[in-house]
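Researcher: If convenient, please comment on what follows.
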Amino acid sequence: MEPQFHLLLEHFETPQQLLDAVTCCEDCVVLMKQLATSRPRYSNAELNASDSHSEVHELVDPVVVTSGETKRLRESVNSITILLEETKHAVSVVKETRQSVKSRKEHNVERTKEAFNTLRNVIDEREEQIRTDIVTAADKRERALKLQLENLLLLWTQLQNCLELMKKAREDTVAVSELVRRRKILERRQNHLFLMMRKSRLEPVMKEQPKVEYENTENLCLEVIRFGRFVCEVTIPEATMNREVTIIIDLQDAQYDIGDSESNKLKVSVTTKTGEAVVVKLVKDVGDKKFAVLFTPRAPENHSLAVIVNGNQIPGSPYRIPVVLRDYSKMSENDCSQVVTHFGGHKFGCLFDVAIGPSEEVLVIDNTNHCVIVFDCSLNLQTVIGQGEGVSRLVHPIGLAVSKDGVVAISDWGRNHQVKKYSLQGKVLSINSGDNMDKNYCPKGLAYHNEVLYVVDEGNCKVLIFYDNAMPFAFGSRGSTGQLHPGQFLSPSRIAISKSDVIVITDCDGGYINFFSLTGNFISRTECENPLAVTVSPDGHIIAGCEYGPNIKVWGPDHLLINQFGDKGSHKGEFHGIRGIAINSTGTIYVVEWNNKRLQIISNT
C-alpha cells in the first residue's frame, strides 16, 4: 500500500488537492456503482436482432450497458474502491502527520520560549552579577587608592618632618660649631688670664711660644704631642703592629702643675678599637716637663690615646693613633725569610694558589700532584686534600678559598669545571657542578665573605656570587682590547675581599686591578701590568703578584701605589710565575710560584 501511496502523493502538490481528488473519486464511485447494479432489459442478442434503431431506444434505458462492459466496470469500481481506501488512508496519515507536525511545532515553540526565557534570566543574572562585581571592584580599588593616598600623605608628612629635623639639625650644627668656636676662644682667654695671674705673682716674663719638638730615637714612630697657652697641636703618623711606639708629651708651656700626688699626677691610657686596654709604660723627666709614653700595638686597627692631668683630659684628648699591620713602604725582597719546596718528603709540583685558614693554616694548591696541601702556622704538614678516590679526588685544581668556619672551596677544571667544598680534614662537603652554568664556564679565583662564596668565571668574564644553594648572582662582562670600559674584563683570574667590603679582582690581559662593591657595583680601577694574584691585608692594603718585574706591588687603602719590588729569577727574593699570594693576621705574606715550584714567605720583622 505504501508504494501506491507514494505514487499517489507524487501527483499532488498539496494535501488539499489530494482531498479534492478523493471527493471527486467518491462521486465517480457512487455513479459507477449505480451503473454496475442496474440490470439490462434486453440481452445483446435481442439488441442485435432488432433492426430498428428507434426501437432499441425505446426498449432500453438511456444508459445501455452490455454484460462485458458491466464486468469491466465492476472491476474498475473495485480498483477505484481500493485506491479510494488507500487514498483515505493516505489522507488520514497526512492529517495525522500534519497534526503531529503542528503539535511538534507548538512544542518546539514552547521549548524555544522556555529556553529563551531561561537564557534571558541567566543573562540578566549574569549582568547583575557583573554589575555587582564591577561595583565591588571599584569600591575595593577606591579603598586601595584612598589607603595609598593616606600612606603617601603620611610619607609626605614624615618627609616634611625629616626636612624640618634636618633643617633644625643643620641649624643646631651651626650653633654647635659656633659654641665650640666660642668655647675655644674662652679657653684661650682663660689660659691667658691664668698665665697673666701667675706671671704677676710668681713667675718671671714668659718666653716665646716653643716650637714643636721631636724625640731623636730609633723607636720614634709618632710625632710629639704638644699643647701650650693658646693652642693644642697633634700630628700622629701611622704606627706599626708589634713594634714599640714612643710618644712624647710636652707640657713645658702648659698651665698645669705636674707632681707625684694622685690629684695632679699625669695619667695616660691606650685602648684598641674594641675598647681593650693596652699596656702602657710611662717614662718621666725626658725633658723639661716632657714625658715619654711607650706601648706596643697588638692589632692592625686604630688605637685611642687619652692624656689626663688634674683629673681632666687635656685639649684634643683622646687622640687617634692609626696602626698598620706592617710598614709596607719599606718592604723589600730582603724580607723573604724562608723558601719551602717540599711537603712530607715529596717535592712540590707546579703551585697554583695559596690561602690562609681560620687558625693561620697555610693551604697550597699543587696542580702537578692534583692536591691541596695543608700546613699549620709553623709550616708543619697537617693533611693533603684531594688524593682520595671517586668524587673526593682532585684532577686539575686551580683556585682556592677558606671560610671562617674552615670550609675549603676548590675550583677543579678536571670534571666539568666543578667547585668542590671540603673540610680542613679532607672530607667532601658538597660539589657544585658546572652542568647548569653558562657555556664556557671556567671557575678560577675564589673568595669567601661572611660565608658567601664569590667565584671568578674566567670563561665568561664575570663574577658569580653564590648565596646558599640558589642560582648565583653575576656581575661583570667581556670587553674588547683597546676599549675596556669600567666593569668589563678580558681575563679575570683572582679575587680578594677587604674588611671594608671592597671586592678586588685582577684582570691579567686587561692590565687592571678592579674594585667593586659587594653587590657588584663598579668603584674604580688601577693600572697594573699582568696581575696574576692578589690579596688584601687586614688593614686594607692591596698586595698583587705580577708576571713581570717588579713582581710584588703594594697599594694603600686609598688605592695608591706605595711600594714595588722583586725581579724575575729563582734565588731567594726573586719570583718566576707567581700564581697565588696570601697574607695572615700577623702580616706574613705567602707567595706560590708556578715555574719555580716553591712557596716563599715574606716575614714581618
Notes: The mean pLDDT is 78. The chain has three domains: 2-169, 225-324, 328-602. Helices lie at 2-9, 15-37, 44-49, 53-59, 67-201.
